[in-house]
Hints:
Elements: H1 3-16, E1 27-36, E2 39-43, E3 49-53, E4 56-61, E5 64-67, E6 72-81, E7 87-93, E8 98-104, E9 107-112, E10 120-125, E11 131-136, E12 142-148, E13 151-154, E14 160-165, E15 171-175, E16 186-191, E17 194-197, E18 203-208, E19 214-219, E20 225-232, E21 235-239, E22 245-253, E23 259-265, E24 270-276, E25 279-282, E26 290-295, E27 301-306, E28 314-321
Antiparallel strand pairs: 1-28, 2-3, 3-4, 4-5, 6-7, 7-8, 8-9, 10-11, 11-12, 12-13, 14-15, 15-16, 16-17, 18-19, 19-20, 20-21, 22-23, 23-24, 24-25, 26-27, 27-28
InterPro entries: HAF_rpt (IPR014262)
Protein name: HAF family extracellular repeat protein
Signal peptide: 1-23
Amino acid sequence: MSTKIVAVLVTAAMLATPGVAAAAPAWRVIDLGAGDDSSAVAVNDLGQVAVNRADHAYLWTAGRLTDLGDLGGGVTVVADVNNRGEAVGWSSTADNAQHAFRWRSGRMTDLGTLPGGEFSAAEAINERGDVVGRALTGSGEERAVLWRGGALVDLAGEPAVAHDVNDAGQICGDLGGRFHGDGISLPVRWSHGQREMLSDEQATTDAINNRGHVLGTTRGDEGDYEDGVLWHDGGFTPVKPPVGATGLIVADVNDRDQVVGMGVDASGGIDAVLWQDERAVRLPHAGGTAAASAINNRGRIAGVSTVVPGSDTVRAVLWVYG
């Protein structure tokens, strides 16, 4: 009899024996060891996590934190990491500018800025190495940009921000941007050089998955960006908060249309939230505060949480189910 068959029979016998029960799957909260006031902002499908703390950025891999370094100015903020372990974000330079970077195999590369501009920031990277984000022109106007093959491309030619890019090269972003002028922001998706408006109502985008589905937030009656929405297949699905919560601030979506974010209760409590199949649930945490920032295709969730009951201090954590 093969060892595989024996293992199956033993497992079946244990489940059938009175008093012997298999442990039910549950969420585990893993403290990534980055210290107080750290935050986990992205997680790839291998379980590597991009982490920020104070002025430093790290890549967490199987319990080990690697400092990403800086561009000479001592400050670095990481935003995303792909499955090749390439991380992107922005870092200060020796002359006090802020430039987008790509970090790979221990080396940080300055991605540069638009002509005359002194600021750029990368927000996302796909598996092909395409990087998207924002950069200032010489006149101080913010633009949505794409770094591809060594070139820097202005996507819109007008005030805009790019937030995410999928493996097919589709990009989601905002025209206008909620921080410009009167706060007008319109959601957009760029596909193969073509621009598609996702809505004529004011909204901002947050993430795009490999199915081309875009996660975003619409503007409420009082002017706040607060109502989550998932645009897909020419329509949209509202992303509603858990029962008892007054709102859900969405952050990321994976290829299974699982959405994560931060729920706010009427009592003031803040919870990390997972939304799937049009239902939202709170993730476990100690203390009174947690927020989810990213989810990978294996369902692992990165974010922040208080880890000591009664404490208000958050740490970078990873939620793992099983």
